[in-house]
Specification:
Helix content: 25-40%
Number of strands: 12
Largest sheet: 7 strands, mixed
CATH topology of the largest domain: D-Maltodextrin-Binding Protein, domain 2
CATH superfamily of the largest domain: Periplasmic binding protein-like II
Radius of gyration: 21 Å
Number of helices: 13
Number of domains: 2
Structural class: alpha/beta
Distance between the termini: 29 Å
CATH class of the largest domain: Alpha Beta
CATH architecture of the largest domain: 3-Layer(aba) Sandwich
Length: about 350
C-alpha cells in the first residue's frame, strides 16, 4: 500500500496538536471547548495524503469548519503517547497489517460502527478498532521492451520467465505469491506454509533482484533492470498511462489495505469518529479512487465511478486474495525472522 509505503514499506505515523475556537469566542477556558478549530491526522504522506486532502479533508472543513493538520505516522510515537497519556493525534492512517497490531496492543479506541453503513462495506473491512478504506494490489508487472511477447499471466508464469525478477525484500506478500507460484490455490493460502514458500523462492533465487521500497521496485521495471516482477499497482499505473514501457495484471494479486483508526485517548474522540465515518462514505471513496487507483472498501462507491476508472481498481473477487492481517499479526515476527535467515543462507 507502500501502496504504498508502509513500515512493511508502505507508511509512517504522525504527531501535532489540536486547538479550539469556542473558548476564544465565549471567554470560556480552553478545556471547556466543545469543538476544536483543528484536528491532527497521522498519515503516510505523499500522494495518499494529497488525495485525502482533496477527497476527505476539504469536505470535512466545509462541513465542520475544522482544519486537518497532518504529520508522519510513526508507530513508536503512537505507543509512547498512549502509554504516557498524552495522545496528540485524533486519527491515524496506516497499513492494515500494522494497525491491527496497534489494536492488539491496546493503542486504539473502539470505533463507533453505528455511524458507518456496514451493509455497503466489503466483508472484512470493518473491525472493532479500525476500518479498511481501500484495496491496492501486489501484482505482476513487466517491462514491455524486455518482455515483448507472452507476458506472465500468473505467478507460476512469472517464476518461469527467463531473466531477472524483482521482488520485495520482505516476507509479507512475497511468501504469498511464492506459494501461488508453487501451485497453492488462492483460497488455500492461509495459514502460510512458510517452508514451502521458501523452497519456491529457492527455485528463482539466482534471478531475484530484491527491492526495499515501492519506488525502487517500480524504477527497476521502468528502467528494464528486471524483465518482470511484483509491485503495487499504484506504482506502475500512472507510468503506464504516461506511455512508459510497463504493463501489469491484477490476476492472482494480493490485496493490501490502508486502515483508519482513532488512537487511545485522542483529544477529540467524538469528532474523530465523525471524520472516520466521512472517510468511509461512498462519495469520499469514489472521489479518492479518481485520485489514486485503489479500490474502495465501500461497494456503493463503485456505482459512482465510470467503467474507465473501475477497470483499473483492485476489488475483492475470485482472482485475488486479501492479505490475512490476522495471520500476520499473530505470526509476523516469527515469519520475518525465518525469512531473514533464509536470505542469509
Amino acid at each position: 500500500m507502500e501502496h504504498r509505503n508502509s513500515q512493511l514499506n508502505r507508511r509512517r505515523f504522525l504527531a501535532a496538536a489540536g486547538a479550539g475556537t469556542l473558548g476564544l469566542a465565549t471567554g470560556l477556558p480552553e478545556m471547556a471547548q466543545a469543538q476544536p478549530s483543528r484536528m491532527v491526522m497521522a498519515t503516510g504522506g505523499g500522494a495518499i495524503e494529497d488525495a485525502y486532502r482533496k477527497t476527505v479533508f476539504a469536505p470535512w472543513k466545509e462541513k465542520t469548519g475544522i482544519d486537518i493538520i497532518t504529520t508522519g505516522n510513526e508507530g513508536a510515537r503512537l505507543k509512547a503517547m498512549v502509554e504516557q497519556g498524552k495522545t496528540e493525534w485524533d486519527v491515524l492512517q496506516g497499513a492494515a497489517e500494522e494497525v491491527i497490531v496497534y489494536a492488539r496492543q491496546g493503542l486504539l479506541e473502539k470505533l463507533d460502527t453505528s455511524k458507518l453503513d456496514k451493509t455497503q462495506m466489503f466483508p472484512g473491512s470493518v473491525h472493532e478498532h479500525f476500518l479498511l478504506t481501500d484495496f491496492a494490489a501486489y501484482c505482476i508487472a513487466w517491462n514491455k521492451e524486455n518482455v515483448k511477447t507472452n507476458p506472465p499471466k500468473d505467478w507460476k508464469e512469472l517464476w518461469a520467465i527467463k531473466g531477472r525478477i524483482g521482488l520485495w525484500k520482505r516476507p509479507f506478500q512475497t511468501l504469498e505469491v511464492a506459494l501461488l507460484a508453487d501451485g497453492v490455490a488462492l483460497k488455500d493460502l492461509y495459514p502460510l506454509d512458510v517452508e514451502r514458500a521458501l523452497k519456491s523462492l529457492d527455485k528463482i533465487k539466482s534471478k531475484i533482484v530484491w527491492w526495499a521500497r515501492g519506488a525502487q521496485g517500480a524504477q527497476l521495471l521502468l528502467d528494464g533492470e528486471v524483465e518482470a516482477g511484483a509491485i503495487w499497482n499504484g506504482r506502475v499505473h500512472a507510468p503506464k498511462l504516461a506511455g512508459a514501457p510497463v504493463d501489469f495484471t491484477l490476476n492472482q494479486s494480493i490485496l493490501v489495505s490502508d486502515a483508519w483508526a482513532i488512537p487511545k485517548g485522542a483529544p477529540n474522540i467524538a469528532k474523530a469518529q465523525e471524520l472516520v465515518a466521512l472517510g468511509s462514505t461512498a462519495a469520499a471513496q469514489a472521489a479518492f479512487a479518481k485520485q489514486l487507483p485503489y479500490g474502495p472498501a465501500n461497494k456503493a462507491a463503485l456505482t459512482l465511478l465510470g467503467d474507465d476508472i473501475k477497470v483499473s481498481l483492485p476489488q475483492p473477487g475470485d482472482n485475488n486474495r486479501l492479505l490475512d492481517i490476522e495471520y500476520w499479526a499473530a505470526n509476523g515476527a516469527a515469519v520475518n525472522e525465518r525469512f531473514n535467515k533464509w536470505l542469509l543462507a
